[in-house]
Amino acid sequence: MLDQKLIRENPSSVEENLSLRGKVFNISHIHELTVKKKEIDIEISNLQSESKKLSKLIGQEISKSLNNNSQEINELKNKGNKYRTRISEFEEEKRILDNNLYKEILSLPNFPSKDAPIGEDENNNVVIKTWGDPLKKGNLKSHWEIGERLNLFDSTKSTKISKSRFITLIGNGAKLERALINFMLDIHTKNGYLELIPPALVNSESLQGSGQLPKFSKESFNCSNDDLWLSPTAEVPLTAFHKNEIIDFKLLPIKYVAYSPCFRREAGSYGRDTKGLIRLHQFNKVELYWFCDPCKSLEAHKSITSDAESILKKLNLPYRLVDICTGDLGFSSSRTFDLEVWLPSSNSYREISSCSNCLDFQARRSSIRTKTNKKNQYIHTLNGSGLAIGRTMAAILENGQQTDGSVKLPDALVPYFGSNFIKTT
RNA sequence: GGAGAGGUGGCUGAGUGGUUGAAAGCGGCUCCCUGCUAAGGAGUUACAGGAGGUAACUUUUGUCGAGGGUUCGAAUCCCUCCCUCUCCGCCA
């Protein structure tokens, strides 16, 4: 959520900043609402002050005169009655105004960072660096072909259970999933992150707090009997973990790592990545999350990104680091570095982690602050996948494939998986 | 799912219509006493927002789970909702 004061006092700078996203933003209506809100707030506050004084006076008069029905007292009561009517009129107006204002202000995305490359869409993203040697040979199998041959997962049967875009992991596939989760959690916890396993169902307020609502309700699964949704990413419960809190400044930064299943409707992606592990309605993810001193989020962003990178390096998977351009930034993010892993079968890099600095955008929506110099200040939040498990498995299968049909696993995984090969049984 | 109890400041806990933002205790902070510690004494201590001032600060509003209502005035009365706890049932 953007700062209301800024919208009220400097609407043109708000429009300018937002338009870096490559679209035209006209906030004149929102601006008007903020100005009006301010006026009404002051008016109500003044009336309440008067009315409060009067009520005290009446109390005093009654206790003095021992007669609470004298003419003077009745006159005072009448006066008070008038205040009450006027206040409730203003309050009704304020209620409507607040509703409208909130709806609109919650639909505005975050400002892109001045450092983000300017551009319209993903074609303008900037590759910062590449790591490792991408495997480029003929005759390379896709991970779903490998998985099928080694009987690691089954999507056809999963369609019977649920519908398309669900997967059942089998045998070594399930074991590899488990190994990857443990491997990642171990590395991150050794690296100073506190592990959490949050609820997978989250309420609307939590989704609103991290930016998925009100704009992206079609992206998440909703439980119609309750005000609960299947969490699309651990970012949601992790943000909400400290909702409505003032965090002790000495505790910052707070670094969490959370393994969680993630559920996404993938509305509008029909026909894309229909095979394999790349785009599923349900997938596992290990998520990194920081609550950080607002003065230090730029360094924190580098740090969280390199923490995610460290997993790819340890798994020896070729990847590249991409600076997301202003037009391609997510709703809540001011700057995002994507990590893209090499998938030889499609001869391309695919997103496996997205590391975002949301500045105070989510903190404002979720009301998470810290006290510095006796003043409360919104903290900054950062999130990054570390990593998406299914896509990591796809990358391991494709990059480790051998001519005999087996898959060689990265050495770092051996203690977790118990073997350095997956072969047909 | 059924029955009951309850939600008050950092915590415990009083308060059932009037200068009550809220007794008391614990905790916190400051000072005094003391060779140090302990004990003791005095004082102080909710939070959030707005307006004004460079600032120390001043002023104002709101907040006793949330939202409505009654009233000149609500922590206190009425309604709705949420949450927590206990017992029973069911259950991984």
Description:
There is one protein chain. The protein has 425 residues and is an alpha+beta fold. It has 2 domains: 4-105, Helix Hairpins (Orthogonal Bundle); 122-422, Bira Bifunctional Protein, Domain 2 (BirA Bifunctional Protein, domain 2, 2-Layer Sandwich). It contains 13 helices and 18 strands. Helix 5 packs across helix 12 (389-399), helix 7 (172-190) packs across helix 12 and helix 8 crosses helix 9 (235-241). 37% of the residues are buried. The model has no long low-confidence stretch (mean pLDDT 92). It binds one RNA strand of 92 nucleotides through residues 38, 41-42, 44-46, 48-49, 51-52, 54-60, 62-63, 73, 76-84, 246, 376.
Briefly, what CATH class of the largest domain? Answer: Alpha Beta
Tell me the overall shape: elongated
CATH topology of the largest domain: BirA Bifunctional Protein, domain 2
The chain-level structural class is: alpha+beta
The overall number of domains is 2
Distance between the termini: 54 Å
Number of strand elements: 18
Mean of pLDDT: 92
Low-confidence stretches: none
Instruction: Report the C-alpha radius of gyration, rounded.
Output: 27 Å
CATH superfamily annotation of the largest domain: Bira Bifunctional Protein, Domain 2
Give the strand order of the largest sheet, numbering strands 1, 2, ... along the chain: 1-11-12-13-16-10-9-4
- So how many helices? 13
How does the major sheet shape up?
8 strands, mixed
CATH architecture identity of the largest domain? 2-Layer Sandwich
Percent range of helical residues:
40-55%
Strand content: 15-25%
